[in-house]
Amino acid sequence: MNRFLKQTALAxxxxxxxxxxxxxxxxxxxxKPEDALExxxxxxxxxxxxxxxxxxxxxxxxxxxxGEPDRHLYNGEGMNIRQCVRIEDPxxxxxxxxxxxxxxxxxxxxxxxxxxxxxNPWTGETVKVMQIANDPVNSRPNYPYRADGTPYTLPNIRxxxxxxxxxxxxxxxxxxxxxxxxxxxxxxxxHAMEIFDFTMLADEILDTNNPTAYPSISWVRISDxxxxxxxxxxxxxxxxxxxxxxxKSYDELxxxxxxxxxxxxxxxxxxxxxxxxxxxxxxxxxFKKMIDVERAAEADKK
Length: 302
Prior knowledge:
Layout: H1 3-20, H2 33-44, E1 53-64, E2 71-89, E3 93-107, E4 117-119, E5 126-128, E6 132-134, E7 158-160, E8 163-174, H3 183-186, E9 190-201, H4 202-206, E10 216-223, E11 237-247, H5 255-264, H6 283-301
Antiparallel strand pairs: 1-2, 1-11, 2-3, 3-6, 4-5, 7-8, 8-9, 9-10, 10-11
């Protein structure tokens, strides 16, 4: 039995124990820092500490260039596999750390097959497609109280009838590892926005009789061109729009993802270890490493 199956079996045991002991169950209060943190943990994590959770999303990728209609460039299928582990701080309380890795595959918009190469309609060049494969994508530790003592609060959560909604906007503007050392003066910083809209049943997320919750998610990303597209500084942006949900098992992923992972990304069937010390990766950092290796290989040939 592999590690993922063992962890899934453990999750079932934990869930059964919780259901067999309803006296400890209660409804979480989003206004209390400890409960607010638990609601976020149930949104993000598995059925118990150390048990994997899988998010899946599916959608489309468009170009937006001033003076021309938007183009449907690719379809996309993605997943993130993560686990959460308990952490404690004498002043900030009992919290958790989330560790994960994620992939998203660019698909032909007509055939839905994974793209290996792409004909760039702006440059006329055929380029090699680099799929999104970021390992790790870890979150900062979360506690009921911040370092300055202020309580943890949920971002913009609201309830409407049986549903709870939690929109999270993440503006990104930071040093681009593919650009130079003078970005504050001449630009070229990495500039993007990620938008995550979680929708969940209020009874499922708030009632601790349930070991976790299974929200749906809408994901929108507005960013610069991917570096592998070789756009050479052309004006324009990419718009990603996808929807998905937290799954109950890895097996629920669509075949196109599972087949590509089995073929080229076998480590993505399980999350990183809970104490993973590595720095996070992005498309830009992964691309830079790939180009540096290719350039070094070319230099050795000379």
